[in-house]
Amino acid sequence: MRRYITVAAVAAMALIGAAPASAKHTQEEAFSVGDATLLGPVHVRGSAADVHVRYSCTFGDHIWVSVKQSANGEIDPSASGEGSGFGGGAAVWWQSHRNSFTCDGKQHVAWFSVDTEEPGSRGQLESGWGWVQFCITEEEGEERLDAIRMEWSRVVSN
Q1: Are residues 149 and 102 in the same domain?
Q2: Same domain for 70 and 141
C-alpha cells in the first residue's frame, strides 16, 4: 500500500511540474531560451577577436558575447566572477552586443566578434586563457530569460 501511495505522489508532482509557467513559454523554457557550445579557441586578430559557437534558441531578441582575461592570461577565478568586468578581477574585457543571430529552434554554427568598442571594454587579449560568456536573452515583463554558456577557453593571438 505504501508503495502505491509513493507512486501516486511522484506522479502528482510530475503533473504539477508540467504545468505551463506562462501562456507564451513553458516552465522548462523559462530557465533557458536555448543552448550553446564553444567550438575551439578564441581567435584574436589585432583589435578584434572571434568566438566560434554552435547554438540553438527558440526565442530571443538580444545577444551578448564577452571574453575576459586576467593580467597574466592564466585561469583566475577572480576574472570569471560576477561583475569582474566592471573593475573586478578581469584585467582585459572584450565584448559585443552587435552580432546578428537566428532563433528558430534549429542549430546554427557562427563566428561572433568581440572588441573594445563598447563602454567598459578594455585591454588587449593575448594568447592564454579567457573567460567566455555567450548569452542570448529575451526580455519578458520584468524577467530576463537567458541561454548562457560560460567557460574558460584557450585564446590564440594570430
Answers
A1: yes
A2: yes
Model pLDDT, residue 12: 37
CATH for 142: 2.60.40
The residue assigned the cell 564577452 is 66
109 burial via Cβ count (<10 Å: 0-12, 13-18, 19+) = exposed
Amino acid letter for position 86: F
* Residue range of the domain that includes 54: 32-157
As a whole number of angstroms, the distance between CA 36 and CA 132 comes to 12
CA distance 150 to 7: 38
pTM of the model: 0.75
Read off the pLDDT of residues 107-152 as tens digits, 9 standing for 90 and up: 999 999 999 999 999 999 999 999 999 998 877 665 665 767 899 9
